[in-house]
Amino acid sequence: MTLKSILCLSVLFLLLACKPEDIIRKYETVNGDFQLSELNAPAFPFAQELDKNAISITFDTDESYLLKLSEQSCEGEYSASESGAFILFNSNCTDRVCDSDWDLYVITLLSKVVKYKEMSSQVILYIDDENYFQLKKE
Fold it and tell me: Got the DSSP string for 100-131?
């Protein structure tokens, strides 16, 4: 075999060893720091008007996330597919980390998210077509 043949076979082997879904997941799904800019949830009304505080979430490329609430934080894992499916799981976000009704409302609704849409400077997390979180990139 010539050096050129060996090099071509090596490159081919490396390309076949890579899983396209790993590349997509690492580079083309939700990642970065986001601020909650809007929560539209008419199907999940709260009994009274809530005092709102800033909420931010960081999605890392290793499919983990950190949610910063009014006083405390919690974390977990997420899965975001190329087709738009989205789920949060293995989370320690419970009522124990909530210092306000707003915090509890947000983490309760985040657990219902099933899909996402990513745009240049924002991500929308959908519970369904009418109920969603709008997150702006920080």
Answer: SHHHHHHHHHHTT--EEEE-SSEEEEESSSS-
- pLDDT tens, residue by residue, 67-123: 999 999 999 999 999 899 999 999 999 999 999 999 999 999 999 999 999 988 999
Residue 115 domain flag: yes
Residue 2 lies in a domain: no
Residue 120 Cα distances to 46, 79, 117, angstroms = 31, 20, 10
Tell me what pLDDT residue 52 has: 94
68 lies in some domain: yes
Task: Please check whether residue 1 lies inside any domain of the structure.
Answer: no
